[in-house]
Task: structure prediction
Amino acid sequence: MEKYSSLLNKNGTKVLISGDSLSYNRYDFDPVPRTEAVLCYPGMPSWSTLVIEAIYQNDAFYKFGKDITITGCKSVINTLPDCDEPMCRLIYSRTAVAENGESLGFRYSCPTDTIVLYLQKRPDSHSCLFDIYVDGAPVESHVNTLGNPERHQGWEQFPIILSVSGACEHNIEFRNIQCSGTAFITLAGIGSRYVEVYNSGIGNRTVTYFIENFEERIGRYTPDIFIFSIGANDQIRLSCEQFENGLQKLTGMILGTSPGCKIVYIAPGRGQHFDEHVEYDPADVACKCGKERFDYYMEYNEILYKHAEKIGADCIDVFRLFENTPIPVWRYDNIHLTKYGNTVLAKQMIHTLMPNGYYDEKLIDASRLL
Result:
């Protein structure tokens, strides 16, 4: 849709994904219970990771690391060395192997005055420091690739934004590499514009939590586009009235700090337990069954859908999205998605945001790496 794609074609646009555990959906990928998005591996191909990748790739001049010829270093490999976890690896990245004091270089043709390097941190002794030169001039000093284990287990992708002069081919060098042994420098890709994308999702939360923790989870990012997964826990802990009032209050807070922000809601896809009691049933649904039970849960989705319509936002209703698909195919458990479910949701979201984008459709596949 034009209201999103025009923003995503601009340098400096900010996108925030947030909400409950569906916002990062580590289920069917990672057996370790990660309580929030920032603790997940950066290459875990959940729907939100696939969306983030597509936003970065939505650039006619984007090049994957594997397509960049790197020279001057000891060697170049298309793997992530000294790492046994496949979800650490960024799609189509390339790693340069260098020794202390060495330099490396590559060339990139750019039609704008901005070059974006998508690099990767690592939490071990193969991290390093280096300076960046463009066309022989220093532009960035002491780039540090040491990762923080509390951010994507230390393997976080990070951008370096370079200002350049002239639409031409540029020579980019990493000089003065400083490391304690052998350095592994991973380049995921290069682009000609930068859209900031964040995921502040946290599991087991309702809309009330995001109101009470607004600055930490939403406000400080000042998003231009806000993608919000909500409703699964609200169905259990909040009344319909509380949920509706919470949505209205949170929307007011968002638009108060980010006027003009475009919002996409994701409504949950409950269904597996519509006909049976579960231990976390709210009191007013515990005795309901069949259509009565179904209607109770769907009322929350309808509230979210109508709220989105009222404010001119979009809403992707997961239940409607998979209405004609057998539940075991798309749902991992009562709420979360299988790899197939992640792929379908990612495609729906990406096509909503960028219907004619430059991303590779074949890469929107949650089962591609594992």
